[in-house]
Amino acid sequence: MSKRIGTVSIIVTNRQDQAEKVNGILNSHGGIIIGRMGLPYAPKEINIISLIVHGSTDEIGALTGKLGALQGIEVKSVLTRV
Predict the structure, then answer these.
(1) Does residue 1 register a pLDDT over 80?
(2) Strands (E), the chain
(3) Rg from Cα positions in the chain
(4) Sign of the dihedral defined by the CA atoms of residues 59, 60, 61, 65, in that order
């Protein structure tokens, strides 16, 4: 199975309600996460998480699908052919 390197951008609009769920999902997919950066953006009252991932399209899709199913979470990914 070929693997790809990519980025996943996560916008969290309700941190208090979703932080534990988001962190649980990220932890369960930790094997494909190379790096993670999270920043609060106070002017818009959101939190932004940026991931660098390396995995199959199925693995990355499972991660983004679980995150995207949470209320108050927006997820976008960009993958390369590496």
Answers:
(1) no
(2) 4-12, 33-41, 46-55, 73-79
(3) 12
(4) positive
Instruction: Give the strands of the sheet with 46-55, arranged side by side.
Output: 33-41, 46-55, 4-12, 73-79
Angle between helices 15-28 and 57-68 (to 10 degrees): 160
Residue extents of the structural domains in the chain = 4-74
pLDDT band at 24 (very low <50, low <70, confident <90, very high): very high
User: What six digits make up the tokens of 62?
Assistant: 């499972």
Amino acid at 18: Q
Place of tokens 């009252």: 45
Structure tokens, 24: 């649980």
- Yes or no: domain 4-74 corresponds to CATH 3.30.70.1150: yes
Angstrom distances, CA of residue 44 to CA of 14, 47, 71: 12, 9, 17
Which pLDDT score, from 0 to 100, does residue 82 have? 73
pTM, 2 dp: 0.91
Mean pLDDT to the nearest integer, 60-68: 97
